[in-house]
């Protein structure tokens, strides 16, 4: 909740704004303090309209954090959350909540020994119909995405940061992605929404449902592509979303820390840590 209050306290974090850059710099410092290597991925976004408000063209950044020695050509997982907001909202739930779980999951994992280079996929039950194995002790890439919020209608005017990240991956790095989870609006409600992007691509969703069951967290399954996991799935990579419970303050100036349920943030963090092994 301290992270949520810090980010929402900056006010709206539209992707090309100075406030977004302030949030990015603060988050970068937190990852560095936890022992991560970080890099900024720069991208350009067009002018448009974001939830009824005109937004200018400009520069934004993804923030990518990895443990020292990470090799992107070897099997790994990706956990992401978008750092930007629509222009009129301080974005406590959308999406300081997701960034908070992203950061504190990374800090939790930093206290554990890094996976050994010889560690690979470990079979583990992933629930009925999963059709695969879940990843245990794989390295993780943590990403705060820029410009997730729309700048117009349609998939190609949305999710700019995650689309840029996926497009930048060489073929060997794409093949190494074993799963991606987008943390988006994760602080409202009492049950964890676990969403696939399509009815056909459900492997990561089923892994998350199994991870939640292992730690006793209640869930509901859903299909939802309006977050950064869709950029991965549409490129043929496995992905899913945690979060998406409706709330009255959505995309408004009332999206403040008091709309969040701290226990829900805790449940989300438990699911992610369980999934990561």
UniProtKB/TrEMBL annotation:
Residues 62-274 form the Peptidase M28 domain. One of its GO terms (biological process) is proteolysis. The keyword Hydrolase applies. Keywords: Carboxypeptidase, Hydrolase, Protease. GO terms for molecular function: carboxypeptidase activity; metalloexopeptidase activity. It holds the Pfam family Peptidase_M28. This is Zn-dependent M28 family amino/carboxypeptidase.
